[in-house]
Specification:
The protein is of the alpha/beta class and 300 residues long. The protein has nine helices and eleven strands. The chain is globular.
């Protein structure tokens, strides 16, 4: 097993490759060399195949390698609020979520802690963790880091935020996001394939790609859907997210300082249909609490 300190003394865990010695000072993500967790909980508002009836066992990691101007969790991602945990403490937290009845262990924005998170998951598995492990990510990942997770993560839940480098630079300070996220998603699919389910219809293994609709669609959701259809296939599971609202610094960018309209969202549902997508989830515009299997059954 790779040393959990791997990559932290000259950090290259994400596409930023900032080179920080995180034992001495934070990296671009704002985090040092200790796992920092903001909160953990049973989450009932993920996609139905994750939340089920008992909830998804979510762990919100502090810090982030993106700087999204519209971030709805900026106190966690940008301000770094949370508490530091050792690997054994994190493993115990994972097992506690399982004991509470969580259908899965949902690690949210853990990219910049990948070696430590990996070690904590493996330790928890050695102590009885048996629920699927979900890697819930912005999609801004390096293929090399994802390969550390091969065989450890069961379900990949990446965003695909941008198809356009200019928009990625303007809204998330990451002009290389489209290239990096597409390579990452292909690696995720190589590892786990398309989404599969247990007897209760809950996600067991595979890839589910989220696409957040921004006002006016500067992220290029239609182009991203076309890319998924071409490179993975329309059988891929996707989640079209309508939950955007102006948050954090969105007021500084007038074009996204408003809600998404129903017409904008419906136009992208039509793109899904035109491209032949059959599996996935839609969301009420403006809601972060309700996913519905608007196209296909959400199970397969």
């Amino acid at each position: 097993m790779p040393d959990a300190r791997h990559g932290l003394s000259h950090c290259t865990l994400c596409p930023r490759r900032c080179g920080a010695d995180r034992f001495q000072a934070p990296g671009f993500c704002g985090m040092g060399a200790a796992l920092r967790v903001n909160r953990h909980m049973l989450h009932h508002w993920e996609e139905p195949v994750l939340s089920g009836s008992k909830g998804s066992g979510t762990v919100f990691f502090s810090g982030c390698n993106l700087k999204c101007v519209y971030c709805q969790n900026f106190a966690i991602s940008d301000q770094g609020l949370g508490r530091d945990l050792g690997v054994a403490d994190a493993a115990a937290l994972f097992l506690d979520l399982q004991a509470q009845g969580a259908h899965n262990l949902n690690l949210i924005t853990a990219t910049h802690f990948a070696p430590l998170a990996r070690e904590a998951v493996l330790l928890a598995k050695s102590r009885g963790l048996s629920i699927p492990v979900v890697w819930n990510t912005s999609g801004y990942e390096s293929v090399e880091t994802l390969r550390l997770l091969d065989g450890v993560v069961d379900v990949y839940l990446p965003d695909l935020r941008y198809a356009d480098p200019q928009s990625a630079a303007r809204y998330s300070a990451a002009p290389d996001y489209p290239e990096a996220a597409r390579a990452a998603i292909l690696e995720m699919h190589r590892q786990v394939g398309n989404l599969t389910f247990d007897a209760d219809g809950l996600a067991r293994r595979g890839l589910l790609v989220r696409l957040l609709v921004l006002p006016g669609d500067p992220g290029g959701v239609a182009e991203s859907l076309a890319w998924i259809a071409e490179h993975i296939g329309p059988q891929a599971f996707v989640s079209l997210m309508g939950q955007y609202y102006p948050a954090h610094r969105a007021a500084e960018f007038p074009e996204i300082d408003r809600a998404v309209t129903q017409a904008e969202y419906d136009a992208l549902l039509a793109v899904l249909e035109d491209l032949g997508f059959e599996n996935g989830f839609a969301q009420d515009v403006g809601s972060s609490k309700e996913f519905t299997p608007e196209f296909g059954t959400g199970e397969g």
